[in-house]
């Protein structure tokens, strides 16, 4: 699917990091982008910058997600592209200092990262499959989700996060198969260590130490590089049902 004017997209987690970079990349190609996020101040600022729109959406709520999509469609028309970047990454060991892992925390991570991603996929796909095709192959839409290298190389304290991102990777193929007959492609990106607000908040020497673990290039990934991969996925119709590691060949150590 060629990125061009007249297309609409929704980017969850679009107020910062990978989501914000993706929103900017899509908008630069002429796509009208609606950002879903809980951070209204940052979301509205980025929406204004790119000529898009912002909706305060909680991906753990059916009603909130439905209302966000309804508003986005009323403003820019039905989305042809959905990019799922909303996520959280708290850490906690399976047991620590005589206490079990807080189950409320585990459930929250799964609710946001995995169930929230699928909630948005399901609601977007329900609308996409009713659209007219836009390519000779019969393509109607593209859905890109965000897993993590933690889905495969989870570190100490990442049981909840790894489980959530592993779920995102694992559901990619069956969802792609569900939607194949309707011409909607589904691809997941598993980023490594990127310049997200969480990592950029660490001291510079810690950032340098982390970057040195990456074989090549030995630096943190740039959000724009994630966004470029989203654009490439949209453009290449043979990319479907796959999880792509974007990580400079890193394999995470236990800690």
Major pleated sheet: 7 strands, parallel
**What is the CA-based Rg, rounded?**
18 Å
Structural class designation: alpha/beta
Q: Note the run of SSEs as H and E.
A: EHEHEHEEEHEHHEHHHE
Number of strands: 9
Number of domains: 1
Distance between the termini: 40 Å
Which spans of ≥5 residues are poorly predicted at pLDDT below 50?
none
CATH architecture verdict:
3-Layer(aba) Sandwich
Number of helices: 9
CATH-defined topology: Rossmann fold
Q: What portion of the residues fall into strands of 2 or more residues?
A: 15-25%
Mean pLDDT: 96
How much helix, percentage-wise, in residues?
Answer: 40-55%
Q: Per the principal axes of the C-alpha atoms, what is the gross shape?
A: globular
**Biggest β-sheet: strands ordered side by side in the sheet:** 3-2-1-4-7-8-9
The CATH superfamily is identified as NAD(P)-binding Rossmann-like Domain
- Please write the CATH class name: Alpha Beta
Structure, explained:
By secondary structure, the chain is an alpha/beta fold. The protein has one domain: NAD(P)-binding Rossmann-like Domain (Rossmann fold, 3-Layer(aba) Sandwich), CATH 3.40.50.720. Helices cover 45% and strands 16% of the residues. It has nine helices and nine strands. It has helices spanning 17-28, 40-50, 62-76, 103-128, 150-153, 159-179, 197-200, 204-212, 223-235; strands at residues 8-12, 32-37, 53-56, 81-84, 95-96, 99-100, 141-146, 184-191, 243-246. The strands form two sheets. Strands 3-2-1-4-7-8-9 form a seven-stranded parallel beta sheet, sandwiched between helices. The protein has a two-stranded antiparallel sheet with strand order 5-6. Strand 2, helix 2 (40-50) and strand 3 form a beta-alpha-beta unit. The longest helix is centred in the middle third of the chain and has 26 residues, at 103-128. The radius of gyration is 18 Å and the shape is globular. The termini are far apart. The model has no long low-confidence stretch (mean pLDDT 96).
